[in-house]
Amino acid sequence: MMNIPKGTKDVLPNDSYKWQYVEGVARDIAKRFQLKEIRTPTFEHTELFLRGVGDTTDIVTKEMYTFKDKGDRSITLKPEGTAGAVRSFIENGLANGVLPAKLYYITPAFRYERPQAGRLREFHQFGVEIFGAKGAQTDAETIMLADSLLKALGLNVKLFINSIGCKQCRAAYNKALKDFFAPHLNELCYDCKNRFEKNPLRLLDCKEETCKKINASAPSIIDYLCEDCNAHFTELRAYLDLAGIQYEIDPRIVRGLDYYTRSVFEFVSTSIGAQGTVCAGGRYDGLIEELGGNPMPAVGFAAGIERLLIVMEQTGVKIPDPAVPTVYLAGMDAECRQKAFEVATKLRLAGIIAEIDHMDRSVKAQFKYADKLGAKFVAVIGGNELSEGVMNVKSMATGESEKVAFANAVEYFFNK
Ligand code: ATP
Ligand code: MG
């Protein structure tokens, strides 16, 4: 038997409607905020992610699916959606068009991680990018979009925000961090010893318990923000208040990606433990220039669709299955089945969800099967009905039956 690769998952037919539902809600909210979809390839030149994600991040150092193609090019399966969106935005000249560019995507992403609940090697993201606007109002709108999505999905989550400043304020902060961590260097994990040299900010992101303990008393970046970054952060908070969005400031949120500046945020569910971050994002004013475009501010987020679904499942959010048949047509004998086929065809052409037997089941077994499908009505066609030109329609909700002429079938089931 062939097995699925570790860290990947099938979405089976009885679950796919849940995905469609979450994706549908996401598209709907995106439309409400005037975002348009961008679709970029599943793989890109490796170079894009080295520059766009950052070579001190966990993603680049440990998690990428990188390989040589048959033309000896280094190719990487996208570990996130932002770098590809930015590449496309620049390459297709959109950066010279009307701003802001408000984009969204729904994409698979690939990371070589240790699989566990809510942490896969292939997962899916709904992502949002707004290019060209620098004001805190846009950060607030981005957060609000995420908040609207999570609320529309019925999730109860906590919002944490922080500012990680700009290059200027971060230089002073990095120094303060190094001074703080230097005496603890021996106690830090292997990765953090490297981070200490290359990118001390990243130390705050470590998930190892001992490192987390030390981190708890590290200096806060908020105390090191320059005047402009401080004003931007103050403005963001004012806009969030205006939008009625509650938040908590967590100075330890630094995000795993190198290109973030100023605002960073995470929406965390308390119901799935360690993998509780369902949505994360922030501002990354340095990225577009880093990838070869003219300097341009940007803000965005990505939500993990698997994690959203896990939280919905765990908190008992019910997702409606849109595909239940309005009517199941049960035919008694060969002639009646033919009639069922004929009526079902008419109903389907009129946009009504109808099902018939394909397995030569008895009428009793067809009833059982219709019930299993969740059919709202079962229409029985027997010899008598056939000669009268009617079907016996039973409402599965009330148990009541009535006769409906074949000729009136579409009219009868429309909007049922
Ligand atoms: P984490 O700290 O959990 O590793 P991250 O900082 O690597 O998250 P991002 O790169 O910000 O995550 O990705 C955005 C969102 O994508 C996350 O908040 C999460 O919901 C989802 N996500 C990230 N990695 C995975 C994964 N391996 N499996 C499933 N979902 C993921
Ligand atoms: Mg990660």
Characterization of this structure:
This protein has 416 residues and is an alpha+beta fold. It is 38% helix and 21% strand. It has 15 helices and 16 strands. It has helices at 16-32, 46-52, 58-63, 82-91, 136-152, 167-181, 190-198, 209-215, 227-242, 287-290, 305-314, 334-349, 363-373, 383-388, 409-413; strands at residues 36-37, 43-45, 66-68, 74-77, 101-110, 122-131, 158-163, 248-249, 261-268, 277-283, 298-304, 327-331, 354-356, 377-381, 390-395, 401-405. The strands form three sheets. The protein has an eight-stranded mixed beta sheet with strand order 1-5-6-11-10-9-7-8. Helix 5 packs parallel to helix 9 (227-242). Bound molecules: adenosine-5'-triphosphate and magnesium ion. Adenosine-5'-triphosphate binds at residues 80, 111, 113, 118-120, 123, 125, 256, 275, 277-280, 302-304, 306-307.
Structural features:
2 domains, binds adenosine-5'-triphosphate, eight-stranded mixed sheet, Rossmann fold, 16 strands, 416 residues, alpha+beta, binds magnesium ion, five-stranded mixed sheet, BirA Bifunctional Protein, domain 2
Give a quick summary of the entry.
The chain has helices spanning 16-32, 46-52, 58-63, 82-91, 136-152, 167-181, 190-198, 209-215, 227-242, 287-290, 305-314, 334-349, 363-373, 383-388, 409-413, and strands spanning 36-37, 43-45, 66-68, 74-77, 101-110, 122-131, 158-163, 248-249, 261-268, 277-283, 298-304, 327-331, 354-356, 377-381, 390-395, 401-405. The chain is α+β, with helices and mostly antiparallel strands.
